[in-house]
Amino acid sequence: MTKAVTSGVLSVVVVMAWTGVYLSKYKDDSPLDTAKNESELVSFPYTEVEDVSYVPYINETEILRRRDKIKEMMKHAWDNYVRYAWGKNELRPISKRGHSASIFGTLPLGATIMDGLDTLYIMGMDDEYKQGREWIANEFDIDSLIQSDVSVFEINIRFVGGLLSCFALTGDVLFKEKAQQIADKLIPAFQTPTGIPNALVNFKTGTSKNYGWASGGSSILSEFGTLHLEFAYLSDVTGNPLYRNKVDHIRQLLQSMEKPKGLYPNYLNPKTGKWGQHHMSMGALGDSFYEYLLKAWIQSNKEDNEARQMFDDAMAAVLKHMLNKSSGGLLYFAELKFDRPEHKMDHLGCFSGGLLGLASKALPTSSSSGRYMDVAKGITNTCHESYDRTYTKLGPESFRFTENVEAKALKTSEKYYILRPEVIESYFYMWRLTKDPIYREWGWEAVQALEKHCRTPGGYTGLKNVYNEEPLQDDVQQSFFLAETLKYLYLLFSDDSLLSLDEWVFNTEAHPLPIKSVNPYYREAAV
Ligand code: DMJ
Fold first, then answer.
1. pTM for this one?
2. What's the helix, strand, coil split of the chain in %, to 5?
3. Element (H, E) at 344
4. Which SS3 state, helix, strand or coil, does residue 72 take?
């Protein structure tokens, strides 16, 4: 019997024993006990123990070969960006020119450099890292930028997060200073009657506004709720409490508000402080708000108990009202629209497998821990199914569950893949947390699919329809492909000591930030 199969058999025995323990131990305090309509709810345990599938054993040499292959992919993505789009936001790999999504306004901000730099550093690509660092030092001048509205959320997670990560990893103060200069340009967006920031801010004038489509001028939960890690850390490394105060204020407001059934709607009006439309989602518009509750607690070395409590309370409501199981046995988070479930899950929502795994590890003695891990395994498996049920073996933007279809996109507008990381992100966490070799195998499947369908001579492209044998390509190499997708793949085939989860917490763009008090790279300012 090979090592991998042995470990698989062992893990089934352990899981069976473990499931039994949790069944008896947590039966009484299950959040499902208070359900009104028992038949509509998913019973615990959520996933059944399945037969061990054969996972081929891979030796150390093969692991290193795979890791080197992923590094080569990063080099291909970077070199082509340098060649055809240097200083622009993103690369168009087929038309071989720069590209700028509306989130970056019309400005060439070097988004791929800001987002990809820590990955270069982590992979030991020293020459490329220095090249990016020099551009930030010499070419990026935020005060010389012309008028343009940029997304507060995107600039925070990609630019401020990326720069702070580089500061933590290297100690180079250039990155801290640039991160602070950029964050200062975001601050005017918080000047609303409630202190909930608007979505867009003009770097030049400081005027800010919300998207017209967002529930009567509302701010978006996943945007204003995804600032905490970067702003709290920025305060600690600069000694300026301004940034932490801003996000603490958002937290207080959210905590004090009444939540419908304990759930957080995706929209909040920054003028009135009232919820907008009651839409709830673990995918687009909701996702990273939940992520930052758990991770703020981890970042604080488990001191920020308010964040943990809010996370556990939110998850209890989400598991109760949004978790579903298909007739084929697949777990998924449905969306809610005015109390009605829409049986659709976004690719974006696939980060939740890894998040719940992390929640389970971070508080192993809690009564929720077993439940979280159980759901984490089920969701990660479903997200893999959404990949496996396509021709390209890459997953669609959203997938649905109906009487006839499971984990497949139905609408043309949901069939695209834009090099997103979330499924691979969950493989990474689940590998680190369970050591089940299946997650490495699934990650390798994704590498092969990316190489086959997304690699072009000029870089990597997204696809318009993952179900087609020869899908049209979208001609965009997203900056998060370098920041997240390739980083998580690389870490999946690296030793656990590289960015240990005991010392680092990843922001929602996969930029590692140090955990306070335990990680010497925290670099807190002397006060
Ligand atoms: C990234 O910018 C971040 O992961 C964000 O939280 C959600 N969307 C993209 C990648 O899909």
1. 0.92
2. 50, 10, 35
3. strand 344-346
4. helix
